[in-house]
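Check my protein:
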Amino acid sequence: MEDLPKDPKIAGLLFVRFTITKRSYSMKELFSIVTAVLVLAVGGCAPQVDVEAERAAIRKFHDECMTSLQAGNVDCFAEDGQMLPLDAAPIKGRDAVGELVSQFIKDPNFSVSHNIVNAEVSRSGDQAYIHYAYEITMSDHDGNPVAEQGKAIWILKKQPQVGWKILIDTWKADGESMSDALVKTEQMTAQAQVEEQNKEVVERYWNGKWNERRPEILDELQTPDVAYHGTAMNMNGIEEYKQVYSSFLSAFHDTQITVDELIAEGDKVMSRVSVSGTHKGDFDGLPPTEKVFTISLFTVFRLDNGKIAEEWEVVDELGLMHQLGMELGPKEDEK
């Protein structure tokens, strides 16, 4: 371990940062660490502040911070603040803490309460800790509320012109569900990021394919063995897809797409789009009519590693044929 700074306050904080990130500690051990920090901080400083007043101030800070956190506001953390659960990976930085808190509060069963056990301030008045007991309720894998109790410590630093901020929030659950919740939250965050990326791929696909009319978008955003399942036809492989796409471009080369809705779930994206254009070329044996059309498409895409691997599509074919002036009637019985 590197030599600690001579300033006992800074030394104490670095001591905490080094030690509790190296291994898991029991609450008793952690309290010993915090006590050592305060001894270092107090021992090198003459009394400068009203400690009782500062104790009251950090209790008030605690209550205000809890209200803010439950609203998704993590401003009470220092910019480099950390959450350090003693049985899970650390969450480093205010932004990362904010992402975790935002995931927690999205849980319809989420609630949390703190009861302060003890609060101590250094004589210098710029370092403190709050020891508290907590109860948190979250959903289990089946969506049922599960409550958990545990003990925790906030290590605080009073910053100039800013006030008290949380440097470290470390806790140990009485059970294991908090670790499970953190893992689940990390998985949910990663999945949400993939789903957002998949939606972006689908939107780029629609715009590139029709609004920009770029055939190369197919190679860019589809797998070579892409499969298409439609109400009137099926396609297998990107080469067949390119041939059909080329024939549609010839018949409706001024087609425009408006993406009305995208919904992502897992590896699939559902899209609802509006398609408009003019019939300017041969379409399925029908000569150009110069008629304008607007129809809706409902498509479910399956993506694999950021590329479209499969499509299921429902087209308003009846509406299209009607707008193009095709005569529709009952099919004659085969004789």
Notes: The domain at 193-323 is CATH 3.10.450.50 (Nuclear Transport Factor 2; Chain: A,). The radius of gyration is 31 Å. Confidence is low (pLDDT under 50) at residues 1-29, 35-47.
